[in-house]
Amino acid sequence: MADFSHTFPAARGVQSGRPCYVAMCPMRLIPKIFIFDSQEVPPELRAQRTLNRTRVPDIVSYLVENPTDYTLSAITASIDAHVSFEPSTDTGLGQNLGLLSIPMDAKILINDGQHRREAIIQAIEQNPELGYDNIPVLFFIDEGLQRSQQMFADLNKHAVRPSDSISTLYDHRDAISKLARSVAENVTAFSRLTEMEKSSISNRSSKLFTLSAIKNASKTLLAKGKGDAITQDEQELAIVFWNEVSVNMQDWQLALEKKVATCDLREQYIHSHGVMLQAMGHIGAGLLYKPKSQWSPILKGLQRIDWARANREWEGRAMHHGRISKARSSVVLTGNYIKHQLGIALTESEREYEEALKQ
Fold first, then answer.
1. Closest by alpha carbon to 120, among 45, 187, 240, 25?
2. Full-model pTM
3. Helix axis angle, 348-358 relative to 328-342, nearest 10°?
4. CA–CA separation, 49 vs 55, rounded Å?
5. Looking at the structure, do residues 100 and 183 belong to the same domain, yes or no?
6. Residues 27, 130: contact at Cβ < 8 Å?
7. For the segment 253-268, what is each residue's pLDDT rounded down to a tens digit?
8. Strands 34-35, 108-112: parallel, antiparallel or unpaired by DSSP?
9. C-alpha R_g of the chain
10. How far apart are CA 238 and CA 287, in angstroms?
């Protein structure tokens, strides 16, 4: 096998004094040339984490459902053999473009991208046409286990998952993200007071809500799950509901008019936090099957609620030991108190939460 090789058009470069190569690899070759460490090998003797198979189906679905509109980042791999690079002399671009030849008996170990590798294998089984697409691969020359382990650590050390808010802002495939953006744009209070990039708000921020909180609350309002479609009528209904909520939240209106500092509202009240929005989404889900003429007057009761953290009724519901809680039980119990103030009957499951709170 040493007499045969895989050959890729590649660009040659140098990183930390070591040669490296970037090539476009046909995806159908991925399972044939890239090795993944056996999960039975102890961690100290391999250069990767074990494969988390729960992550793979989402990537597979993404590839299969978007065959003409997906994006995959580069795989990083180490080669444990001598490679040859033959510069192209007729490009006029110097000696760093050419053909990279890798012996077929070389071991090519993935340092970063093992979940992409597994997803590509499964996606090609469902849609063989994907095998003719390419994925960029960054090749390094293997210098032993220690170096490969260090590469894995370095590649993942500074990786930061984007916030839910900015993911929602930029995701144009997800119907619920589209709903959140539309609500944030068309509900007056949200349009001026929403943090679109971060999922938490700093003390000095002039914003009152986060886009991620609006997304979760609107998802609950329309009782939608992951991948569910959202009609234009449903989207418009959500906008009408949140506008109706906002006009009955006097502090939100004061913030819009810049008569009160948003940082003071977030510090002293619970009505701009995610737990309250989520609770209102849950309440709204039980109201929207009625005509607006029936549920709109009910929401006027929001004006009579004491939203201050100093209101002891919020302890054990929206707050635990004075701190805002995002737990599922907190959402339900917060909604129960709001329902009581609005004169809305509790469901059987909501009454069970109340009994647990009393105990």
1. 25
2. 0.76
3. 110
4. 13
5. no
6. yes
7. 999 999 999 999 999 9
8. parallel
9. 27
10. 12
């007729």: which residue's tokens? 90
Residues 18, 22, 27, CA angle at the centre, nearest 5°?
140
Contact 148, 105 (CB under 8 A): no
Same structural domain, 187 and 304: yes
User: Is there a single domain that holds both residue 123 and residue 170?
Assistant: no
Judgement on whether residues 228 and 287 belong to the same structural domain of the protein:
yes
Q: What is the pLDDT of residues 127-174, one digit of tens each?
A: 999 999 999 999 988 766 667 667 777 776 776 778 899 889 988 888
Instruction: Kindly state whether residues 149 and 214 are assigned to the same domain.
Output: no
- Candidates 56, 25, 57; CA nearest to 131 is 25
CA 318 – CA 337 distance, rounded (Å): 10
Q: Could you give the angle at which helices 232-247 and 274-285 cross, rounded to 10 degrees?
A: 120
How does DSSP assign 334-354, residue by residue? HHHHHHHHHTPPPPHHHHHHH
- A 10 A CB-CB count for 73 gives 10
CA 199 to chain centre: 11
Element (H, E) at 14: strand 5-15
Q: Is the dihedral of CA 118, 120, 123, 125 positive or negative?
A: negative
Lookup: tokens for 289: 């099957």
Determine phi and psi for 311, rounding to 5 degrees.
-70, 115
Residue 26: count other Cβ atoms within 10 Å of its Cβ: 13
Q: Give the residue from 130, 157, 184 where a domain finishes.
A: 157
> Range of 85's domain?
5-157
Question: pLDDT tens digits for 287-330?
Answer: 999 999 999 999 999 999 999 999 999 999 999 988 999 899 99
Distance CA 293, CA 270 (A): 28
Task: Determine contact, residues 216/273, Cβ cutoff 8 Å.
Answer: no
